[in-house]
Amino acid sequence: MYTRKNQRDLTRTEKRRLIDAILKLKRSGRYDDFVVMHREYYVMDTERRPRPAHMTSSFFPWHRQYLLEFEKALQRVDAGVSVPYWDWTQDNRPTSSLWAEDFLGGNGRSGDRRVTTGPFAYAAGNWSVGRGVTDEHYLTRNFGRPGSDPVSLPTKNDLARALKDPVYDTAPWNSVCTEGFRNRVEGWGIRGVRTVGLHNRVHQWVGGPMAGAASPEDPVFWLHHSFIDLLWDRWRKAHPKSAYRPGRKPASPGPDRDYVFGLDDAMPPWRVTPRKLLDHSKVYRYA
Amino acid sequence: MSPTPAKPGGTRIPSRRTVLRGAFTAAVVTGTAGALFPLLDRDPAATARPAPAPGPGAGSGSRATAEEFAEMYRGREIWGTATVVPAGAPADDRVAVAAEPVTEIRIDGRPLHVMRRADGTYLSDVRHYESYPTLLETARAAVDELGTARLAPPAAHHM
C-alpha cells in the first residue's frame, strides 16, 4: 500500500526522486513504450474495433491500469515513488510550484514554445519528444493557447457539475453521450450542448504534445490522470448506489455495445476487467 | 434518399450537402452515431470545388468529394480533401465508408493524420482532444497548435 499525494504537498526530496525515476525510465526506453501504448489504444468511436481508452465507458478503468503500470515501472527504478496528482481547479496558474524549475519546468517560451526550464528542457539533455507527430525534438507547451481561441482550466464548479451526475455512463457509450459522469469528465465537446470540458480541456490548456496523439510525452500527463483517477473515487463515494455501466453484455449486443468494455469484459493489453479495478484500496490511496 | 452518384464527365454532380445526407442515412441505419448534428452548419471559407469525375474502373461505388480546400493559413500551406462513397456501393462497403469518409490533410506537404467522431466531426494527431465540423477547421486548428513546429515526415508518421 502506498499513497498518491497532491503534487503541491510533495517535499523537495520527493520531487527530486520522482523526476529522477522518470528520467531513468526515459533513458531505458520504457517511457516511450508507454507513449506508444496510449496512442495504440486511443481508438475513435467511428472505428469498427474495440476501444478501451477514449470515447468509451472504460475511460476510467483503462487509465487506472495504465497509470498502475507506469507507476510499477517507476517503482522498479525507485520503490519509494508514486504518481502525485495535479488538482487543476486549485493549482491553475502558470506560476504554480508544479511548473517550477525543481519540478516539471514551466511554459514554453514565445516563438517556438520550447520549454527551457526544469528537468525536461531539451537543453538539459535528458528529454526529447517527437514520437511521430511533429518534427521537433524539444518539449513544447503553450499554456491557455493565447490568441484567437484561448482555453482556461476547468473550475471547481465545472467539476462539481460532473460529479453530481448519478449515472456512470449511458448508451451509446461514446464521445457524444450528453448524460453520464464518464463523458462529462472525459470532456468531449458536443455541439449545441456543451464545449470541451474537464479532462480534454486540461490537455488543450497545456498544449504542445499534451494536446495531441502523443500526450504522455509531457510528464504532466501522469499527474493529470492521477487526478482524473481520484475523481472516479470521489464520484463513487458520492453515489454509492451507482454502478459501473455497461454491465453484462446482452445476448445480441447492438453495434453501440460491440466495441465497449462492460463491467466484466477484459481490457487490452492487460486483460483486466473494469470490475477488478473498482477498488484499489489494497494497492494505493489518495492523500 | 440516395444521392445521385457523380457521372463520368461531371454532368450531374451531387452537392456536398446531398452527399453528406447520404452519409447520415447510413450512420443512422448502423446506429454508430448516438446523437447527430448537422455536419456542416456553414460553408467553409475556402471554396468547395466540384467533385472530379471518377476515373476508369469506378463502378457503382463512385466517390464524391465532400470537401476540398487549398489555402495559405498563417504562412503554412494547408490542403485537404474528404471523399464519401455515396449509396449505390454494396451495402457493407457503403456503411463502412460512410461512417468514415476518406480524408486527407497536408500541411506544407506533409500528411496530418485525421480521425472522425461519431457525430461526424474531425480531429487530428495534433489536436487530439477537440473536434471540428470541417476538415478546413481541423487543418487550421492543427496549424495553430503546431506553432512553428513542422509535422513529422511521412515515414515517421505512423508508429
TrEMBL record, chain A:
Gene3D superfamilies: Di-copper center containing domain from catechol oxidase (1.10.1280.10)
Keyword tRNA-binding: no
Cofactor names: Cu(2+)
Endpoints of the signal sequence: none
UniProt keyword annotations, A-Z: Copper, Metal-binding, Oxidoreductase
Domain Tyrosinase copper-binding: 54-71, 218-229
UniProt xrefs under InterPro entries: Di-copper_centre_dom_sf, Tyrosinase/Hemocyanin, Tyrosinase_Cu-bd
Assigned protein family: Belongs to the tyrosinase family.
Protein name: Tyrosinase
Organism field: Streptomyces rubiginosohelvolus
From TrEMBL, chain B:
Domain of life from the UniProt record: Bacteria
InterPro entries, sorted: GriE/MELC1_sf, MelC1, TAT_signal
Region (Disordered): 46-67
Matching Gene3D superfamilies: protein ne1242 domain like (3.30.1880.10)
Pfam family membership, one: MelC1
Keywords: Copper, Signal
Family of the protein in this entry: Belongs to the melC1 family.
Protein name in the entry: Tyrosinase
